[in-house]
Structures are given as structure tokens and as C-alpha cells.
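If you are new to this repository, start here. Below is one unmodified record pulled from the training split, so you can see the exact layout before writing a loader.
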Amino acid sequence: MIKELAEQLSHGNNLTIDQMTSVMDEILTGTQSDENVAEFLKNLTEKGESDDELLAMLNKMEEYSLHISPNCKGKIIDVCGTGGDKLKTFNISTAASFVIAGAGGNVAKHGNRSISGVSGSADIFEYFGFDLNSEPNKVNETIEKFGIGFMFAQKFHPAMKNVAKARKVVGGRTAFNLLGPLTNPAMVKNQLIGVFSEDYQERIVKILKRKNAETIMAVRSADGMDELSTTSKNQICMLKNNEITKMTLDPQKVGLQKGNISDIQISSKEDAIKSFVTVLDGSANKTKIEITALNAAGGLIVSDIADSFTDAVELTLNAIHSGKAFDKLENFVKNCGDIKKLEEAKKL
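And here is the target side for that same chain:
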């Protein structure tokens, strides 16, 4: 079936939900050759994925993944980007996750090692001695205990190993890059999602609305980052109370200073660790701290902890400067990693 459907895609035809559901079963069970899967994915990317196709893919990815159900007070969210902006910035969403936890939120962080950037969220957690292959029940407990836990995509989406070689053959972006942030194993209904392209911003929100999401904020900066940024204005597409709205956020209007992209860029894994730790202990440059606080503020809004960016930014900056964010990191590493690595990181 996959060859026939790849042929349809090559003629610019969209697949139905049923067709995509069937082909995803073939792909995720590993019953197709890497060449066939690569051709299918390449043709799908070239045609451009329809919302129905993406929804069918998303449903199947969830069906084949491991899940957790943390029992927390308040909403459980994720803060994650699609990647692909190629700007080599430090791990903003990972730092923001600890700030959100420090401000009283709950984050089920989902991520992977870096593919196109310098350092991915998994690289950060791994550096501090966290076991990326932690079992779901262990991650569940961690979120309940610390308000933050990490789910390594390769562990929680074991069927994706059947797509790994095909994705390498394609060599560029496929639908899976887009779907990664939407397949959180805690099945979160509230999420801040950074999107690399304006084309997908509203579409992602509409797809998640069809999956009964509650509060979703899909964001991108005017200068192309898949994050909220202090370096430019930001475009936001938001789902709340079953309604989709769009807005532009000027960081200077919520009390933040205009930053430069060069202030938040990194060139090595060591830079990434240093940036991450110094943001959380409040000693990084102002742009790094404020961009993290802005993204964490988005997280507090989708968590229903704050109603406006002005209030949320005040809470997140306070979580950093009061030491609460760093305390979260320290307690997390003490219990789930190697505290010596944190001591080493402080000296970088």
C-alpha cells in the first residue's frame, strides 16, 4: 500500500485519514523497507501535509507510544519547540521549564538529543546524570515530587526506531519534526509550542483543538525563532475556551529589554550547560534571563497560573531572582542525577 500512496502524494493528492492511518501502521511496525518509507515521507513533505494527514499520523504515534499520568495539583504542561530555526540558541525551553516549576507549575518535559542545533533538551538532562531510559513510573513520580520530569522521546516512542533510517535517507525535515512536540507522553492538554514557520502556527493549534486540547499557545518570533523572544515582537496563536485567537506580543510592553540574538547564541555543548545553569542561578546576561522568563511566562499562562504576560513575567523573574528556579534544578539533580555534575557546571 505504501508505494501506491507515495505515488498519489507525488501527484499532489492528499490522503484520507483512513489511508494515512493504515500506512502509519505499516511504517511504525517496521514492515516496510527504509527506501519505501523515505520515498513516502519525502513525497509527503514535497506535497505539503494536510491537517487530516497530520492528525492521523499524530493519533498513530500516540497509539504506539508509552504514556504516563502524573497526579499533580494544577495543570500539567509541556514547553517545547519544533526546532528547525537554525539559530543555535541555548536551551531556552528547558531552562524555562525549571522556572515554571519554581513558580509553582508542573512540566512534563518531552524532548530529544539535538539534531540541527548545538544541544537538545536530552543533552542537558543527560549531562546532569539523569537516566534518559528512566521507566515511565519513575518519570511519573519525579513530576509529582518536583513539578518537573523529563521524557526522552526515543524511550517513550519506541516505534520511531522503525523510521530513523528513513529519516536519515530523506536528510531534511519530515512531518515527524512537526509532530514531535505534539506527542507528549503525558497527553498534556495545555502547552506552549514554539513553531519555526508561520505556515504551521495556526494549523498546529487547529489540529490540537480537534484532539480536545484546552489551552495551547503556538508562538514564533518575528525574527524567526521557534520561541517567544525579547529580540523582536512575537506572533501568538492561542486556543483557550475552545476559541482560537491571534495576537502580537511586544516584550518591551511587558517590561523587558530588547535583546540581541548574539546574546543568546552558543557554539558548544559546554556553552549550553553554562548558559542553562547561569540563567537559573540568575548570573547570566540580561537577555538570556529575560528570554527564559518570557517563555516561562507563556508556560504560566497556559497553566492557568497567570492571566497576562505582565503578571506572568513578574512571577517568572521572581522565581529566578529568588533562587526558586535554581532550587528546583538542585533538588532534581540531587534526586535524579549526579550533584557533582552541577558543582562542575557552576565552575564553567
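Two things worth knowing about this chain: The mean pLDDT is 96. The domain at 76-156+178-333 is CATH 3.40.1030.10 (Pyrimidine Nucleoside Phosphorylase; Chain A, domain 2).
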